[in-house]
Design a protein that fits this description.
By secondary structure, this protein is an alpha+beta fold. The chain folds into 3 domains: 14-182, 2-Layer Sandwich (Beta-Lactamase), CATH 3.30.450; 207-284, Orthogonal Bundle (Helix Hairpins), CATH 1.10.287.130; 289-440, Histidine kinase-like ATPase, C-terminal domain (Heat Shock Protein 90). It has helices at residues 8-76, 116-123, 173-247, 254-285, 297-314, 333-350, 381-386, 396-402, 408-418; strands spanning 85-88, 94-99, 105-110, 133-140, 144-156, 162-171, 293-296, 318-323, 328-331, 356-364, 367-374, 422-427, 433-440. The protein has a 6-stranded mixed sheet with strand order 1-3-2-6-5-4. Strands 8-10-11-13-12 form a 5-stranded mixed sheet. The radius of gyration is 44 Å and the shape is rod-shaped.
Length: 443
């Protein structure tokens, strides 16, 4: 025999926990993997740029030593524009220009003569920072835009006077394109890692929650079995106590008679508790067959209110009903009666002496809206959020004294859900409580 699945409300909590765990696992793994990729990219990019800078620094320093005499002669006036010579080495990747203190070309060694004008325009006035690689984009007619890495190395004489600068440069379009391709690849990998992390996080969350799911199944199976097994002996006890009470009324003194009455009340309370637990267990197992029929909801509400009016009056409470007639729903009459009865029982239990309970039934947006309002102590936000939890009691000492087990609102929620409706509470401390149940109207 297959095991029953967890109830819908437990499934909702489990799904919420699974989603939270999955997101946390996935976020942690994704952040870790992306951080590794990012660090790897930054390190690779830094190494590429450092290698590029080292190449340019070595070129600039070497040429500064070679052409320092040329700069000294230029400053002394022994060399002029007619002495400028430009070398051509197409097989090299880096090139350089030597400019005097007046930013005029003294010497050079280039790989593409067509770029000379554009490059010298960048070097005009010796405005580039000293000893730092900068990236500049120039326009080459035959190949479009090019990106150059430029390094300015100042040259000074023995007395520290400025003689000029050596500008080392190289085309870094290929290197930057490589970094861009690497970045695009890493972004794709990061996206893939995020997807894998999400799947892995969901799997890990599901594995983490399996023990909890098993515990919930075992708990529901135990409650269902215990409730079922308790029904028969409690019925026998109740019948036996009723018989003893009736037959021995004249032979028992007041103390023993009252003890017998108290015992019978406790057996009845246990019977109601076992019935409530069995009903919830059947909801959980999906084994409850609803007798769906078209019925007048106002008649169901009016009967439950009439049954509880003597109890309310005995406690000094007023119970008023304002019911719209002719509102019909499709559902199980017994379960709907239990829903209304549980709502009224809660209102009677929490309304103080002299208080008022108001029951309203009206049509609203294609639904029947049942409202049971009291002017009791109300609930805090925490109590209201947890009110529909099973066995939760906002005031445990008071509920225990009144015989409540914290199952009434849980049953109301389950019955409303089984009828495609919704149950909710509106309450605030000192402002009473309103139970609002909406059910679809019958077509």
């Amino acid at each position: 025999m297959s095991r029953p699945s967890p109830p819908l409300h437990d499934l909702a909590h489990l799904d919420a926990c699974r989603r939270r765990l999955a997101w946390r696992y996935a976020l942690g793994m994704a952040l870790g993997l992306c951080a590794v990729l990012l660090v790897g990219y930054l390190m690779h990019s830094a190494l590429v740029k450092q290698s590029l800078k080292s190449e340019l620094v070595q070129l600039a320093q070497r040429e500064a030593e070679v052409h320092k005499p040329d700069l000294e002669a230029w400053v002394a006036g022994r060399r002029g524009p007619e002495d400028v010579s430009i070398g051509f080495r197409p097989h090299r990747t880096a090139f350089y220009y030597v400019l005097g203190p007046d930013a005029r070309l003294v010497h050079g060694n280039e790989t593409r003569p067509s770029l000379r004008g554009e490059v010298l325009a960048l070097l005009k006035d010796n405005a580039l920072p000293r000893g730092r690689v900068v990236f500049e984009e120039i326009q080459a007619d035959e190949e479009g835009a090019l990106t150059l890495a430029l390094l300015r190395h100042p040259v000074e004489d023995a007395e520290g006077s400025y003689l000029g600068s050596v500008y080392a440069a190289t085309d870094v379009g290929g290197s930057l394109a490589h970094l861009e391709q690497l970045l695009a690849l890493l972004l794709v990998l990061a996206l893939g890692f995020v997807v894998l992390a999400g799947l892995g996080g969901w799997w890990m969350a599901d594995r983490s929650l399996q023990p909890l799911q098993q515990a919930l199944r075992q708990q529901r199976e135990f409650i269902a079995s215990a409730s079922h097994e308790l029904r028969a002996p409690l019925t026998v006890l109740n019948t036996a106590l009723a018989l003893v009470e009736r037959e021995g009324r004249e032979r028992l003194d007041d103390f023993h008679h009252q003890t017998l009455v108290d015992a019978r009340d406790e057996v009845r309370r246990l019977g109601r508790l076992s019935e409530a637990l069995l009903l919830l267990a059947r909801f959980d197992a999906g084994g409850l067959s609803l007798r769906r029929e078209r019925l007048a909801l106002d008649a169901v509400v009016e009967r439950q209110a009439r049954l509880r009016r003597p109890q309310a009056e005995a406690r000094g409470q007023t119970l008023d009903c304002h019911l719209a007639e002719g509102l019909r729903v499709v559902g199980d009459a017994d379960l709907l009666a239990r829903l209304v009865g549980a709502g009224l029982d809660n209102a009677v239990a929490y309304t103080p002496s002299g208080g008022a309970i108001t029951v309203r039934l009206a049509a609203e947006a294609g639904q029947a809206r049942l409202e049971i309002a009291d002017n009791g102590p109300g609930m805090s936000d925490e109590q209201r959020r947890r009110a529909f939890e099973r066995f939760y009691r906002g005031d445990p000492s008071r509920q225990r004294h009144q015989g409540g087990a914290g199952l009434g609102l849980a049953i109301i929620e389950e019955v409303a859900r089984e009828h495609d409706g919704e149950a909710r509470l509106l309450s605030a401390p000192g402002a009473g409580t309103r139970l609002v149940v909406t059910l679809p109207l019958a077509p």
